[in-house]
Automatic annotation (TrEMBL):
Pfam families: YchJ_M-like. Residues 50-159 form the YchJ-like middle NTF2-like domain. It comes from the Eukaryota. InterPro entries: NTF2-like_dom_sf, YchJ-like_M. It comes from Zooxanthella nutricula. This is YchJ-like middle NTF2-like domain-containing protein. Gene3D superfamilies: 3.10.450.50.
């Protein structure tokens, strides 16, 4: 499986061009168990059959720092896919962003989100028709526990709607 990389063409809204990361069953199975094939299918360009499948693919994108897959599989009103990819690049430590006075003043919880730069495990707690409750374990010992809502999408099967519950770090 080749993850999508830095070749996103915003003008034509096509899928990103493949990058150099190729994943095998051995790469996917430790995080996804018997569900590795559904992740593999999404990473090969097939629409996700369930919100759980796209969430698992999104975790794999976080783990392997595939900002374009993350940006393509989420919706955020008023933000372009390119801008979402840039935001993920900062979150995952691929780019730095200079902070102003107010950024430092209002950055409560930002150190937690920076934990996503280095993840080590994924667990689905529960999944239903349009949401997935999951935990992401990070190498710094922190865990993100979240319940995310997904909407149907012709290209990807499902995409993250931008709506979440919990979003708690422990």
């Amino acid at each position: 499986v080749t993850l999508f990389g830095s070749g996103f063409d915003a003008a034509t809204a096509t899928r990103p061009a493949p990058n150099k990361v190729t994943l095998s069953r051995e790469d996917l199975e430790p995080d996804h168990g018997d569900s590795w094939e559904s992740v593999n299918a999404v990473l090969q360009g097939q629409p996700a059959e369930t919100p759980e499948a796209i969430m698992r693919a999104r975790f794999t994108a976080v783990k392997y720092k595939d900002i374009n897959l993350l940006a393509a599989t989420e919706v955020e009103e008023g933000t372009t896919q390119r801008n979402r990819a840039q935001g993920w690049a900062v979150t995952l430590g691929l780019q730095t962003q200079e902070k102003g006075f107010f950024d430092n003043l209002f950055s409560k919880g930002e150190e937690d989100i920076e934990s996503l730069k280095d993840v080590e495990g994924f667990e689905v707690v529960d999944a239903k028709a349009d949401w997935v409750e999951f935990k992401i374990r990070c190498k710094n010992g922190k865990t993100l526990h979240e319940k995310s809502t997904f909407t149907k999408n012709d290209k990807w099967g499902f995409v993250y709607s931008g709506e979440s519950e919990f979003g708690e770090w422990s």
